[in-house]
Amino acid sequence: MIRKLFGALALALAFTAAQAQPFPSKPIHLIVPFPPGGGTDILSRLVATKLTEVAKWTVVPDNRAGAGGTIGIAEAARAPHTGYEMVMGQKDNMVVAPWLYKGLSYDPTKDLVAVAHVAYTPVVIVTRNESKFKTLKDVVTAARAAPDSITYGSPGNGTTIHLAGEIFGRAADVKLRHVPYKGSNPAMMDVLAGNVDLMVSSLPSAMAQIKSGKLRALAVTSAKRSSSLPEVPTVAESGYKGFDVSTWYGLFMPAGTPKDIVATVNTEVNKLLASPEMKAAIIAQGAEPESMTTEQFGTLLKTDYLAWRDIVKASGATIE
């Protein structure tokens, strides 16, 4: 009996000592739920690098791609809630996918906690520079002349980017043919090769190719022009008033992660976002940095989660 009591006491002391260690006392595993090279990957690695440089943390990105980003999110949702597991979520897999995928294993509003908003970005409609399409009007004219003949690639079924193309087709009253890929990079390669006519992409994924002159940006889908591409018109300016589709990126941890750890990560990320160097780095990738409290980010998650239920229902899209 005494031996058991001493054993329990030893375990309790060990647990208390572990809790007393400053956070983080070991590397943080950052799940990136899309393949290398896309917008989520670019921002994840930027945040990981800067946290390592500035906060002196060790943050290790790990690409776990598949099923529109839902595989990586599901892994994060069932990870230990110790503070050493987090994921770069985005609107696609946090608020759109739950209404598209049948039997999804996680509820983003219950199984994960919003930690730190990082950035938002408009979606951009691009074509290769040699394309006959010079404006969005050219695309609509061609699509009306030959319905379902104009193809557009996206990073995958069920992403905000995929649905941005569907929503635009409805706004313009044309039928475009969606070609889903497993991530932004393969879609990018095919639009550059001319295998698909257009690509609907996050700006971070497409920015390098736009800047190099290999891709032509036809329009951004946000309500206002991007500060990274001020010369590119919005879809609304191209004749479709009120059109506004953008996406956001942020860090999440498994539900039950200690609140003090969540607060610490939020504070450090917001410090990064306040620095001119980090702001410039994010804008250079085509995104717009935006810091939030954990409460503000949690409210954004819940508000968008309910809003996209209606958008997905109206689109008629489902994924088995």
From TrEMBL:
UniProt-listed CDD domains: PBP2_Bug27
Tagged with keyword Signal: yes
Family listed: Belongs to the UPF0065 (bug) family.
Protein name: Tripartite tricarboxylate transporter substrate binding protein
Domain of life: Bacteria
This protein's UniProt keywords: Signal
Record InterPro entries: BUG, Bug_dom1
